Amino acid sequence: MNPKGGTVSVVDSFPYQVREIENVFIPMRDGAQLAARIWLPEEAERTPLPAIMEYIPYRKRDITRGRDAANHAYLAGHGYVCVRVDMRGSGDSDGVLTDEYTQQEQEDGVDAIAWLAEQPWCDGNVGMMGISWGGFNSLQVAAKQPPALKAIISICSSDDLYADNMHYMGGCLLGDNLSEATVMFAFNTLPPDPQIVGNRWRDMWFDRMENSGLWLEQWIEHQRRSAYWSTSSVNEYYSAIQCPVYAIGGWADGFTNTVLRLMQHLEVPRKGLIGPWGHKYPHQGIPGPAIGFLQESLRWWDYWLKGKDTGIMDEPMLRAWEQHSVPPDTSYDERPGRWIGEASWPSDNISMRRYGLGPYTIAMGEGHGGPHQQEGHESALALQSPISVGQSAGKWCSYAATPDLPGDQREEDGGSLIFSSRQLAEPLEIFGMPMVEFELSCDKPQAMLAVRLSDVAPDGKSTRVTYGLLNLSHRDSDADPEPLVPHRRYRVRIPMNGIAQCFPVGHQLRLSVSTSYWPLAWLPPEPAQVDIYPDSCALVLPERTPGEEDTRLPDFDEPEEAPPLETHTFSASEHNWLLHRDLATKESTLEVINDQGHFRIEDIGTEVRRSTREWYSTVNDDFTSARGETYTERSFKRDDWNVEIYTRSILSCDESNFFVHAQLDAYEDDYRVFSKNWEKVIPRDHM
């Protein structure tokens, strides 16, 4: 049966006995060394086995130690040498990390794979896997074509660093840009462990704090598509990837469109899998159902690294969880639905169907829609949304640190222009990327639109299904944006994120349009009125015809992993979103709490403390009052080691500029040993 949520089963007996090697230094071509932790099946020392590498900047020694133990010990127990590598400038590796997805990072990955293939315990076949950053660089390193790399698994990643990442969406600056910059600001300031690198740890630490840079500054300096983003975006050179690819995502994650594009454009053997999950490995997936991802990955590795016919390539190219209707909520344990499969992508089972928009209506079952009146003969619907639209949007990328999913859309709809269908007389299934075509004009040179497709139940509750954003100056190009000419009419297309959804009988589809979506997307420089001409607009849906093959899909196994890391908890994690409205000052603040607690890792005796808070505020209806602030606390403590690091980042604006302010303070044994401030003014570039 398909798993329906619940805990992951712990497996403590495996076919192979495994020895853990706490640290090995892997030499790079320039003499630098990368730190690696290895799970080595004892059999490999007699009969070499394939190796699987995960290569990320999130500290193998402590921060990801628990996840690594659960995943890599499991795969190693089934006959793979598993190697978890700290990237240059992170964890216990040499160097300084100055940006994400650099050419240096990719060359280091190539060198690490070559080193693995040459070891006496490796048979020369290497796989690469990872989630998020590790999914990104699995694709990027694969495009470098290292000879020993035979296959990859890329989870929650992107092939397009500008249009489908945490920085920009539809040419709009994302709030997650600040959030992700904060994550890396904190990580880049952390020291290596003295027990691994010895007495040089303090010099390495100071080098990182002084020279890693403020990534928020450089990400905001590049507000349009350019070589800065495209150099490491594999959508620029799909054909460079010559090894098989398994691409995986989740509907609550921010990166699911990548899976669909990779299935369409890659020319190698490939598979795609999209569940209901957020930014998590699928065996720990929330919302559920979680699946036996580690068993599924073994089927993939056995096929491509050991030459065993596991049947995995006989199954549909793309599998996805078709979500069924559910009341709106900011968190779910599970999303009801079913697995569907497609033999190829794009699929012959899916047709793009156009539905015309009338005044406040979606003309479903009343023709195919599209422009049908001449300019000058149709009335416009005026739209100018309040800043508050977007406070129920949830996070661009859900980390299952709930409540970070979109809530009931009815409050949002009060500040939006809405188009609703009649109640459905029969179920409607969609799978793919919906799109909206608008004819519009605007009274200002700069504006944005957010579009949301929702499932409205008979009781009126509205659940967001998918959404899209467009900075209207990017209507024709992300590389060469142009301001709007006030009151000139334009025709624009706004794609929405991919989704598989079934709308039931008696429900309505609702298309909601707003000129703000704060703080998921940064506000334009000033309020703008957009006039939409509905008779020349259309909603385009990827409608799917169900097939019998859906009922013949094999079930996934129940979730499993290796025994958990032994820890002692001093204070538990806390996750919450709080909305503060001061009716006297007219200030509204969204506070995001991501406190990951205080715990001791028993096998290395290290106490770890991690906490992040974010505040996104505005005052009244002043678009230039938009302000994001983040604060992080990190500490590591043992009898021989006591360090604390604090960061603070602020992003604000006026009509012409963004203002960046950041602070870093580091302490050793309760004495402040390092302090640095950053101040930067960055002109708004059609943003």
TrEMBL record:
SUPFAM superfamilies in alphabetical order: alpha/beta-Hydrolases, Galactose-binding domain-like
Xaa-Pro dipeptidyl-peptidase C-terminal domain span: 298-562
UniProt keyword Methyltransferase, yes or no: no
Protein name, as recorded: CocE/NonD family hydrolase
Top-level lineage group: Bacteria
Keywords, ordered alphabetically: Hydrolase
Keyword Hydrolase: yes
Any GO molecular function: hydrolase activity
TM regions (residue ranges): none
InterPro entries xref list: AB_hydrolase_fold (IPR029058), CocE/Ser_esterase (IPR005674), Galactose-bd-like_sf (IPR008979), Xaa-Pro-like_dom (IPR000383), Xaa-Pro_dipept_C (IPR013736), Xaa-Pro_dipeptidyl-ppase/CocE (IPR050585)
SMART domains the UniProt entry points to: PepX_C
